[in-house]
Amino acid sequence: MTLSTSTRAPGPVRRRVVAGVVAGFLGMGAALGSGLLTAASAADPTTVSGIVLGVGANETQRIVSWYSSADTAQKIQLAPTAEIVNGEFPANAVSFDAVGAANTSTTGFNRHATISNLRENTAYSYRVGAEGSWSPAYAFKTQDFEGDYDFLFFGDPQIGSSGDRLKDQAGWEETLKVATGANPNAELLVSAGDHVESANDEGQWTSFLAPDQLRQVPLVATIGNHDVGGKAYEQHHFTPNTDRSAQYYNGDQATRSGGDYWFIHKDVLFIDLNSNSYANPADGSAGGDAAHVAYVTDVIKKHGSEAKWKVLVYHHSIYSPASHATDTDNKQRREDFTTAFSNLGVDMVLQGHDHSYSRSYSIKNGQKENPAEKPGAPEVYPGPGGVIYVTANSASGSKYYDIKKPDDSGTGVRGNGADPLDPDKYWYNSVQNQEHVRSYVKVQVRGDKLVLANVRSGTCAAPNAAVEKGLSCVNTPEGQPVGSIVDKVTVHPYHGDGQAIQVNVPNAAPGEFGWTIDGYNGLVDLGTAQERDGTYFEATGKINPILVSDSRRSLAPWSISASVGDFSDADKTFSGSYLGWTPYVLDAGAGAQAGAAVLSSLDDQGKGLSASSGLGAAVQGHPRGGAKLGADLDLKIPDSIAKGSYRTTLTITALSS
């Protein structure tokens, strides 16, 4: 009889597996599919609420937090948006298990999970819950993981502080709509804290989380003084790299919420502090501002070299122009923070709390660094140790504080005296502004500068709750419309007495992993089987070699495997298990190692090549390059097989992570 095998397609064949999260989906699908969660019963479905997309430890991560009506196993399901068909997630959608517990501010349970292994320049869709009780799907997109980007900074929404939660919500929603509409590629939404008026009022949290932008662009959450008094902040915002030890809190353990945390996004190291704790313990133990300084010092020591810029975020503004400017606790923070921040090379500090806008002069060790720096200068060149402090005005319009006049306390570290160059301002502020209109701060991160702009997101008109309730307004829509600039400054880095040299290296092609059948003959002819010992037939041959190439920078592991179906000739068949092989490497490269030999089932009563078997593979970290893989085929069949010319298909599969 004549026996042959063939690949599924004649002629040259090319198969590719793209490096990145798609390959992860392919490699993980079976494991995840085997662990599907039990759906809630139709009579009592689990509902989820308060979904918020949070920042992860780096560009490849996002942390999603939400509330659940039931204490059931839940997860995030994620897929590239391009793979969502008619609203259905694909079978290979990746899942991330959630963790959580009963929440303390309302009935129900909190959950969070971390999305990881995201790839750049990709649109993703996600949903949370479990089979049978999924949330609606939401979408976000990643951008380049290197290079320039913009982020948006928002002052205290403090939903509920006007006395009308829904008016406050309307202003907050409008600011996010305006800001993201004008900056559709902004990569982060950074909070100054005081998300709500009352920490345990879930109605206020619902209003704060109402804008869909909070499910589309990662939020960098900051805890304010109105966000403490319960655990809701921490339950709504799980943050990366967070130190939640007692030294970062004031008050009873049951009400502690939030901690100091850090993350890196492209060229910026962000460090976010729980500034509600500031008092240093009398016994000298770690706590309060001393603990914050120790935390910042440790993070910058370990990770400062990984970024070009260092940006701190916390709630209580230490250089602001309004009601909180003279607070004793903020004067204490000036004394505790400023010299440390200068010594650590911090570039910018983003703050809230005072519901007004200000941009400081370059401050070094608690003093104006350059006495000649002009008020409102559009270009600033801080020397070594110079730090710019920014306070954001209200993003919702729920509350504004009016600017106060300087006093006679001087220009010392704790002083609130007048600016010699502009006696109507405090000595430390280059710009102060209060118009009783909503605004946000746009920060452009560039390789050679930070560009900061305070932008109006509203006018005197509604939604502007505080003004609607009788507060005066000095903004004129004709001259100062939505989108107009209150203040703009370019902050240039210090390069010493030398000349800094910069070069941008473009993204190299990520490379690819693939395989090709060597040659154009897809048919492997084993010829005519020979009788052996009067008990079986045997035919031998070689596969057409497989050419493997791997040019990926990730040096991820790869494998090539294959299997065959039944041999057939019209209505006559015999099992593919009778075919075995011995793989080998013809041309070494790309870390290739040959797979194990597989015997015909006639020899070991196994499955032979009817089960997928490895032809070759390489481990993580292998060199880039190419290899040629081959295999000797050995077919042994019982002599009872009917005469015929039989064929089967060798199906080749490539996998990589």
TrEMBL record:
<dbReference type="GO" id="GO:0003993">
    <property type="term" value="F:acid phosphatase activity"/>
</dbReference>
<dbReference type="Pfam" id="PF16656">
    <property type="entry name" value="Pur_ac_phosph_N"/>
</dbReference>
<dbReference type="InterPro" id="IPR015914">
    <property type="entry name" value="PAPs_N"/>
</dbReference>
<dbReference type="InterPro" id="IPR039331">
    <property type="entry name" value="PAPs-like"/>
</dbReference>
<feature type="region of interest" description="Disordered">
    <location>
        <begin position="359"/>
        <end position="379"/>
    </location>
</feature>
<dbReference type="InterPro" id="IPR008963">
    <property type="entry name" value="Purple_acid_Pase-like_N"/>
</dbReference>
<feature type="domain" description="Purple acid phosphatase N-terminal">
    <location>
        <begin position="50"/>
        <end position="142"/>
    </location>
</feature>
<protein>
    <submittedName>
        <fullName>Metallophosphoesterase</fullName>
    </submittedName>
</protein>
<dbReference type="InterPro" id="IPR006311">
    <property type="entry name" value="TAT_signal"/>
</dbReference>
<dbReference type="Pfam" id="PF00149">
    <property type="entry name" value="Metallophos"/>
</dbReference>
<keyword id="KW-0732">Signal</keyword>
<dbReference type="InterPro" id="IPR029052">
    <property type="entry name" value="Metallo-depent_PP-like"/>
</dbReference>
<dbReference type="GO" id="GO:0046872">
    <property type="term" value="F:metal ion binding"/>
</dbReference>
<feature type="domain" description="Calcineurin-like phosphoesterase">
    <location>
        <begin position="151"/>
        <end position="357"/>
    </location>
</feature>
<dbReference type="InterPro" id="IPR004843">
    <property type="entry name" value="Calcineurin-like_PHP"/>
</dbReference>
